[in-house]
Amino acid sequence: MVIRDGFQFAGWYTDAAFNENNKVSEIPTGSMGNKTFYAKWTTNTYTVKYSCGTGSGTVADKTVTYNSTYGTLPTAVKTGYYFVGWYLGNQKITSESIVDLTSNVTLKAKYTIINYSINYNLDGGSATNPSTYTVEDTITLNNPTKTGYTFSGWTGSNGESLQTLVTIQKGSTGDKTYTAHYSANPNTKYVVKHLKQK
Predict the structure, then answer these.
(1) Contact (Cβ atoms closer than 8 angstroms) between residue 24 and residue 37
(2) How far is CA 185 from the centre of its chain?
């Protein structure tokens, strides 16, 4: 039996042009002399299925012709994640390597989570809050403190209305910016020193 990866054996021929009239299935009894036969091959095609896993949407199946140009692979989408690529087990499949497949396969999408930045303008105040978050996090901001002032609220990514309770909900995406606002305490006492030269 004749085997060639990625191809289907299509018969023996007496000529390299594979004229159907010259196809040979057997050597008749009584034949004499040296014989040369040419193997004909047909290129195999395979079905590639794409599994987006926890991503959104579906990707249509594609047909791959062995050792032929495939083109650009599709892209999977998952909110809050970067698409890393398509994998067959631990092997990443590219538009170059996909044409080396020799069977029907299901490729699985791989993702990596995005870290979004959180920026603060505390206007002289102080607070301990995270500088990044992901789509999987729920974060309630700690309000800042500032000597002689009362915190009035945050503005920024939460809107222009002052809010003293700001939570970044799970499922949120994009970089965030928050600005702290204060009001001066009316009963705060200050010491004023007058310095005279000499």
Answers:
(1) yes
(2) 50
CA-wise closest residue to 48 among 83, 82, 74, 67: 74
CA distance 116 to 81: 11
Nearest of 159, 121, 127 to residue 140 by alpha carbon = 127
- 100-151: per-residue pLDDT in tens? 888 999 999 999 999 999 999 999 999 999 999 999 999 999 999 999 999 9
Please name the residue that has the structure tokens 């009035």: 152
User: Torsion angle of alpha carbons 157, 158, 159, 163, nearest 10°?
Assistant: -140
Give the Cα separation of 105 and 2 in Å (integer): 24
Q: Does the pTM exceed 0.90?
A: no
Structure tokens at 87: 């994998």
DSSP line for 147-170: TTEEEEEEEETTEEEEES--EE-T
CB 112 within 8 A of CB 84: yes
- Identify whether the C-beta of residue 41 lies closer than 8 Å to the C-beta of residue 21: no
Number of Cα atoms under 13 Å in the Cβ half of residue 11: 13
DSSP 126: B
* Beta carbons within 8 Å of 33's beta carbon, 6+ residues apart: none
Q: Are 109 and 86 in contact (CB under 8 A)?
A: yes
Q: For residue 135, give the DSSP letter.
A: T
